[in-house]
């Protein structure tokens, strides 16, 4: 079957990548059903950042205004010394960033973006459906769920995250790679964070640990992610909790802004950080992977959600090319996407060490390199996935 006819597509996973793909595919006339293992879609999670490479694609899907209204524009980037709080590098974003890259850099609560996507999705995801098995034939795909129910589709998209059940069908079993690092995450009312009303994208860099901090929900809340080395904490879960006192203790001796912020969080999440080695392949004849299921990456480049949005746009485009067989569309999708996601995956691994240098010559050298940061990340933020697709 060529993909010029509307396809029956089953998307496994109702997260940001899965819903974005479903919206993009439905806009092109395909019949899409989204399944998720959760019993209900709750507001768990914390902040995410969307760069121009992601926002631009949402603009073209007609979601740009709703995304902006749910977000905070990260109008500048600042790097602070861990102990003194002194700013050692600052660069404007806001209009400067939008003029250069064609869309703003936004901070969002994950639940707010999820709500925008659910509102746009024409239908309700089918919940309580955990994928247990995928069976593929030349004519279609059968998905069996843990409760014994089954569904059939022309194409199955695995958007079911780091521990994807669909990926095992595509690649066989593999092991997640533990970074020996965990992060504390939380949201703090802006009035309880010193200088919170002036924050853009803010980094506090120090020996062996660092924080990334930015406003979400129109500046009402400050989101923090506090990274610490910890080979013992191995639980990877959006819903796992920690005591705020543990986060405060982990950053003992840091500046007042950090300590006050960590002390004022009402609920602290904590989870271990994993990724996987880049996959040799993402697709079979009728099954493919998207987002974290295809290329889970550590959060140190702030690109996880953006790369899922790029995947969704490219995949929807290829599955809608007249007379292009499904298997060929999926093959081209991974050919286009794999080199870029692999490069960002590997770069994300390296960034943590760079952010956690002790005071001294190596940190001074890093700080000097920050002057050229906008040029160094332009290949990420200035990238246009749909332009690349058209060129291919």
Automatic annotation (TrEMBL):
Domain of life, source organism: Bacteria
Cofactor(s) this protein requires: FAD
Domain FAD-binding positions: 9-345
Keywords: FAD, Flavoprotein, Monooxygenase, Oxidoreductase
Gene Ontology molecular function, alphabetical: monooxygenase activity
Keyword S-adenosyl-L-methionine: no
Protein name: FAD-dependent monooxygenase
Organism per entry: Dactylosporangium fulvum
Record lineage: Bacteria, Bacillati, Actinomycetota, Actinomycetes, Micromonosporales
């Amino acid at each position: 079957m060529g993909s010029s006819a509307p396809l029956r597509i089953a998307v496994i996973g109702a997260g940001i990548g899965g819903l974005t793909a479903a919206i993009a595919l439905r806009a092109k006339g395909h019949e899409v059903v989204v399944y998720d293992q959760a019993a209900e879609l709750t507001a768990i999670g914390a902040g995410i950042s969307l760069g121009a490479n992601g926002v631009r694609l949402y603009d073209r899907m007609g979601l740009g205004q709703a995304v902006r209204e749910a977000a905070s524009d990260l109008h500048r980037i600042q790097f602070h010394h861990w102990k003194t709080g002194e700013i050692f590098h600052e660069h404007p974003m806001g209009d400067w960033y939008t003029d250069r890259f064609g869309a703003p850099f936004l901070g969002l609560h994950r639940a707010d973006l999820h709500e925008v996507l659910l509102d746009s999705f024409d239908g309700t995801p089918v919940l309580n459906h955990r994928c247990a098995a995928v069976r593929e034939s030349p004519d279609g795909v059968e998905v069996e769920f843990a409760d014994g129910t089954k569904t059939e589709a022309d194409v199955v998209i695995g958007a079911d995250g780091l521990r994807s059940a669909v990926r095992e069908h595509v690649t066989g079993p593999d092991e997640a790679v533990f970074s020996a690092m965990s992060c504390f995450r939380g949201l703090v009312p802006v009035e309880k964070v010193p200088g919170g009303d002036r924050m853009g994208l803010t980094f506090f860099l120090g020996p062996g640990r660092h924080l990334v901090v930015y406003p979400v929900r129109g500046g009402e809340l400050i989101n923090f992610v506090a990274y610490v080395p910890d080979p013992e904490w191995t639980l990877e879960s959006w819903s796992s909790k920690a005591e705020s006192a543990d986060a405060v203790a982990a950053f003992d001796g840091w500046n007042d802004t950090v300590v006050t912020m960590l002390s004022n969080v009402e609920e602290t999440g904590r989870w271990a950080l994993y990724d996987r080695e880049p996959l040799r392949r993402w697709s079979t004849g009728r099954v493919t992977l998207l987002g974290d299921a295809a290329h889970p990456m550590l959060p140190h480049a702030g690109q996880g959600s953006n790369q899922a949005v790029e995947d969704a746009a490219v995949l929807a485009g290829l599955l809608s090319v007249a007379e292009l067989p499904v298997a060929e569309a999926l093959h081209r999708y991974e050919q286009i996407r794999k080199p870029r996601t692999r490069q960002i995956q590997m770069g994300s691994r390296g960034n943590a060490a760079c952010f956690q240098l002790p005071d001294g010559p190596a940190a001074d050298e890093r700080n000097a390199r920050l002057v050229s940061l906008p040029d160094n990340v332009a290949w990420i933020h200035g990238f246009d996935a749909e332009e690349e697709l058209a060129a291919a």
